[in-house]
Design brief:
Structural class: alpha/beta
Distance between the termini: 34 Å
Radius of gyration: 21 Å
Shape: globular
Helix content: 40-55%
Number of helices: 18
């Protein structure tokens, strides 16, 4: 059955032009001012638009199933049953999470003959139980091994700000699905920045939780030590709603003021060689945060300097990736993207003793960094040192660009910190992300800080309208 889509029922914006949060959309649906069915149909229409990026954003679309679930949620809501704030909300899923009865490919043709998943990944189970409407599997960098976002087999979606530019990765399709209103929220993964980097480049919010607060079962791993699963959405509040569901936790109030927050900007590396636009926007953001009453200082953290110098991710990530890929490389190596294959095969040169020593050194640096930062509510820095590069630039220098994209984000996977990227650019300008880094296990505390700081910047609704007018 096809639903009639009207602006009042399908728009993600309120009457005042501001973007509605998940909680506000749920309230509209409960009040009969909107329907899940109409909003899901609107998302599916954007995915199917031949002039849009849907064919590159999604590897598979569950249009019939999504419509059925949306209609069922509308019926339940009309009868007074609401599983969670996510009931009836369109959500996209990165193509490395298992869906019962489907082959999980991680956007690679090398897995096209793999057996279908016997059950849903725990994250997917929790989303379904919460009443979320899963609209499809999003494209990604093959096997999640790059923050650039390129995929030679399934294509690469263009950046919503400028389609000649990359979206970032590896959660490329996830970021664009949200930015282009093909889904209200998305599930991504982050090993060295794969949620935060595309969120920053596409102008949305991306949250990397402390590792293992969200279960990793039923996913194709890149690095079991460094991987995290987390949400992407237009606002911190929306990320918090999704995080509560996938972490199996109760949503906490985000009420917190900026005044009195203790925030530190690391001296080490994170401000080096910034694009002029990134530097300008970051400086402006810091001024606004200070003016709002936060105690913002620049501090030195030797443990962070040691992490940058060590490049421990460059040992742990390929060693663990090779462990998972070894047999598949022998059987289907010719079907790998050559750049991805080369990165995985770096693991062949890593000795077991070096890998074990790096894990031990990681624990030492985690403890040292925990001690050094214990008096701060969050660390603050640009998420990415550059604005989104063009596809042509990446074709000529992908490895160099990849290094610049992940530089600020990657250390906090090594240090097992929760971190979030917020858009801080002016509407219509190149997207720039502000990264806040919280304490290990302090995920809700970080979300509260991020929500407070988010309120200081132009509305996300304005950014959405600016994108549509380009």
């Amino acid at each position: 059955m096809n639903h009639v889509i009207t602006p009042a029922l399908a728009s993600p914006l309120g009457a005042d032009g501001r973007r509605l949060t998940i909680a506000q959309q749920a309230a509209q649906i409960e009040a009969g001012a909107a329907t899940s069915a109409a909003r899901v149909d609107a998302c599916l229409a954007r995915i199917a638009d031949p002039q849009g990026e849907g064919k590159r954003v999604f590897i598979k679309v569950w249009d019939q199933q999504a419509r059925q679930v949306a209609a069922a949620q509308d019926s339940l809501l009309s009868a007074g049953y609401r599983a969670s704030p996510l009931a009836g909300v369109p959500v996209s899923i990165k193509d490395l999470l298992d869906i019962k009865g489907e082959v999980t490919r991680a956007a690679s043709i090398a897995l096209d003959d793999a057996p279908a998943a016997r059950c849903d990944a725990p994250v997917v189970q929790r989303l379904k139980a919460a009443g979320a409407v899963l609209v499809g599997r999003t494209n990604m960098t093959q096997f999640a091994f790059s923050v650039v976002g390129l995929n030679a087999h399934f294509g690469t979606p263009g950046n919503p700000w400028d389609r000649t530019r990359i979206p970032g990765g590896s959660s490329s399709g996830a970021a664009v699905s949200v930015a282009d209103d093909m889904a209200t929220a998305a599930i991504g993964s982050d090993t060295v920045g794969s949620i935060r980097v595309p969120a920053a480049l596409c102008g949305i919010v991306g949250f990397k939780p402390t590792q293992r607060t969200v279960p990793l079962g039923g996913t194709i791993p890149l690095s079991t030590t460094l991987d995290s699963i987390g949400p992407m959405a237009h606002t911190v509040a929306d990320c918090a709603e999704v995080y509560a569901v996938i972490a199996g936790e109760t949503t906490q109030p985000l009420d917190l003021g900026v005044k009195g927050l203790r925030l530190a900007i690391p001296r080490e590396v994170v401000l080096d060689d910034l694009d002029a636009e990134v530097a300008r926007v970051f400086e402006s953001a810091c001024s606004a945060i200070s003016a709002a009453g936060a105690d913002l200082s620049t501090e030195s953290f030797p443990a962070l300097a040691a992490v940058h110098a060590l490049n421990g991710n460059g040992v742990i990530q390929p060693a663990e990736a090779l462990s998972w890929h070894r047999d598949l490389l022998r059987r289907r190596g010719q079907d790998y993207d050559p750049r991805i294959k080369a990165r995985i095969e770096t693991g062949l040169r890593i000795q077991a003793s070096d890998y074990i020593a790096m894990l031990e050194r990681r624990q030492q640096l985690i403890e040292a960094f925990d001690e050094a930062t214990k008096h701060y509510d969050a660390l603050i820095m640009p998420t990415v040192a550059i604005v989104a590069p063009t596809f042509d630039e990446c074709a000529n220098a992908e490895d160099a660009i990849r290094t610049r994209l992940l530089r600020n984000a990657a250390p906090f996977n090594f240090l097992d910190r929760c971190a979030i990227s917020l858009p801080i650019h002016r509407p219509g300008d190149a997207p720039v992300g502000l990264m806040l880094v919280g304490r290990r296990g302090g995920d809700w505390a970080l979300l509260k800080v991020a929500h407070a700081i988010e309120s200081l910047f132009p509305s996300l609704a304005s950014r959405a309208e600016a994108r549509r007018s380009r």
